[in-house]
């Protein structure tokens, strides 16, 4: 039998992967991450002491917030004696003091046995009070870290 002059061509199958959709998805994800990355600033700006750090020399007496072993807060403003204080009163007093003296150093001293979350909460309270920079206080050591 003869065909009527038409011959059918068979198409060859391509064994290639189409990467265009993958490139599109990658570019969209890249744009999403570039837009959202600046919005994820969740940290607290603190300066942690080095192992061989020297003490800070200031002319002004700092605002000192102390967190004891039980998590209680104590406030020392300038040369006044240390007094126990509640969280809301701490925010009010430090806010008023920092408004009068914006360049005053603000320090947090925490007992080494207290949970870090309590010290972090004290730092959040100081941030709410308007303290621009908050430092952590430590005792000078022998340079060796102690395991827990």
TrEMBL record:
GO biological process, any: cell division
PANTHER family: EXBD MEMBRANE COMPONENT OF PMF-DRIVEN MACROMOLECULE IMPORT SYSTEM, TOL-PAL SYSTEM PROTEIN TOLR
Annotated GO CC locations: plasma membrane
Protein name, entry field: Tol-Pal system protein TolR
Keywords assigned by UniProt, alphabetized: Cell cycle, Cell division, Cell inner membrane, Cell membrane, Membrane, Transmembrane, Transmembrane helix
Top-level taxon: Bacteria
Subcellular compartments: Cell inner membrane; Cell membrane
NCBIfam families, per database record: tolR
GO molecular function: transmembrane transporter activity
Keyword Cell membrane: yes
Family: Belongs to the ExbD/TolR family.
Main location: membrane
Quaternary data: The Tol-Pal system is composed of five core proteins: the inner membrane proteins TolA, TolQ and TolR, the periplasmic protein TolB and the outer membrane protein Pal. They form a network linking the inner and outer membranes and the peptidoglycan layer.
Transmembrane region(s): 21-40
Organismal lineage: Bacteria, Pseudomonadati, Pseudomonadota, Gammaproteobacteria, Lysobacterales
Native species: Dokdonella koreensis DS-123
């Amino acid at each position: 039998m003869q065909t009527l002059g038409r011959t059918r061509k068979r198409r060859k199958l391509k064994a290639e992967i189409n990467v265009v959709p993958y490139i599109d998805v990658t570019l969209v994800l890249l744009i999403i991450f570039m837009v959202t990355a600046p919005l994820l600033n969740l940290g607290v700006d603190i300066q942690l002491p080095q192992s061989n750090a020297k003490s800070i020399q200031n002319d002004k007496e700092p605002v000192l917030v102390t967190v004891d072993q039980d998590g209680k807060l104590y406030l020392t403003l300038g040369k006044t004696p240390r007094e126990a204080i509640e969280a809301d009163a701490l925010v009010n007093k430090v806010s008023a003091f920092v408004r009068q003296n914006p360049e005053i150093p603000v320090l947090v001293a925490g007992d080494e046995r207290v949970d870090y979350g309590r010290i972090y909460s004290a730092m959040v309270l100081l941030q709410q009070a308007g303290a621009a920079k908050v430092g952590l206080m430590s005792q000078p050591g022998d340079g060796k870290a102690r395991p827990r």
